[in-house]
Amino acid sequence: MMEAMCIVFVFAGLVCLGLLSPLLYAAATVLPLAAGLLRRLIRLIGGSR
To answer: How far apart are CA 23 and CA 34, in angstroms?
Structure first.
C-alpha cells in the first residue's frame, strides 16, 4: 500500500513540475526585464530631483 502511495506522490510531483516549468521559464525571462525597467525608473526619478 505504501509503494502505491509513493508512486502516486512522485507522479503528482512530476505533474506539478511540468505545470510549473512554463511559469519558471516565464519568470526567468521576465525578471531581467523587470530589473532593467526598475533601474531605468530609478535613474529617471534620481535624475529629475
So the answer is: 15
Note whether residue 47 is domain-resident: yes
Q: What's the domain count of the chain?
A: 1
DSSP 12: H
C-alpha cell at 2: 505504501
The amino acid at residue 9 is F
Q: Which domain holds residue 39?
A: 24-49
Q: How confident is the model at residue 16 (pLDDT cuts 50, 70, 90)?
A: confident
State how far the Cα of 13 lies from the Cα of 21, in Å rounded to an integer.
12
Tens-place pLDDT, residues 24-41: 889 899 999 999 999 999
The answer as to whether 17 is a domain residue is no
